[in-house]
């Protein structure tokens, strides 16, 4: 199974053109969007234009492949107005004998994992900084942000054939782990 992961769009359409090119150039089985789809909010950096309708329409185009998670900035109105299901907390993908738990990251992450105590990969966004950490039998992967990175670059991740690889928008590898 080949899976694209990205997070924290925050209603900004700028880098979705790059994501669309990725989708068109790869045969992804699933596209996982890890929350904070539409929201900009009062603390938002106004150098980017928010266009939540564009983001909604973009994601709807891929709704047959999308697994979407609710982020801490996604409202009930966002959830109800979306034309695809948005999962509240955790989604599980089992592929290649790997349990991949997907979440936004505000409830489960490297520092908030008290309920996850089994061999797995936990994939999330929320922190807006990409990294891979392994502790015991759990691999923690923060995919960063496609729109508002913190002290880093715009990023996303691809899973393919037992390998999780974080990329920047120049297609440079940020980090990778093979299981």
Question: What descriptive keywords fit this protein?
Answer:
seven-stranded mixed beta sheet; 179 residues; 12 strands; alpha/beta; 34% strand
Structure overview:
This protein is of the alpha/beta class. It has one domain: Metallo-dependent phosphatases (Purple Acid Phosphatase, chain A, domain 2), CATH 3.60.21. It contains 3 helices and 12 strands, in the order βαβαβαβββββββββ. It has helices at residues 16-25, 52-61, 76-81, and strands at 2-6, 30-33, 66-69, 86-87, 91-95, 98-102, 120-124, 130-135, 138-143, 155-160, 163-168, 173-178. A 7-stranded mixed sheet has the order 4-3-2-1-10-11-12, with no helix packed on it. It has a 5-stranded mixed sheet with strand order 5-6-7-9-8, with no helix packed on it. A hairpin with a 4-residue loop joins strand 11 and strand 12 (173-178). It is globular and about 40 Å long. It starts with a strand and ends with a strand. The mean pLDDT is 93.
Tell me the structural class: alpha/beta
- Quick one: how many beta strands? 12
Major sheet details: 7 strands, mixed
CATH topology group: Purple Acid Phosphatase, chain A, domain 2
What CATH first level would be assigned? Alpha Beta
Strand content: 25-35%
Q: Architecture in CATH?
A: 4-Layer Sandwich
């Amino acid at each position: 199974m080949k899976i694209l992961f990205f997070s924290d769009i925050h209603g900004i359409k700028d880098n979705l053109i790059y994501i669309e090119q990725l989708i068109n150039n790869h045969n992804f089985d699933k596209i996982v969007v890890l929350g904070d789809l539409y929201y900009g909010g009062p603390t938002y950096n106004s150098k980017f234009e928010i266009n939540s309708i564009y983001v909604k329409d973009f994601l709807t185009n891929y709704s047959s492949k999308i697994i979407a998670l609710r982020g801490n900035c996604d409202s009930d109105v966002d959830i109800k107005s979306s034309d695809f299901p948005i999962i509240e907390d955790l989604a599980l993908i089992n592929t290649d004998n790997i349990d991949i738990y997907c979440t936004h990251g505000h409830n489960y992450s490297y520092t908030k994992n008290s309920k996850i105590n089994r061999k797995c990969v936990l994939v999330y966004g929320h922190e807006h900084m990409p990294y891979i950490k392994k502790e015991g039998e759990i691999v923690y992967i923060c995919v960063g942000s496609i729109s508002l990175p913190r002290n880093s670059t715009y990023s996303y991740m691809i899973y393919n054939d037992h390998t999780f690889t974080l990329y920047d928008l120049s297609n440079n590898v940020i980090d990778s782990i093979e299981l």
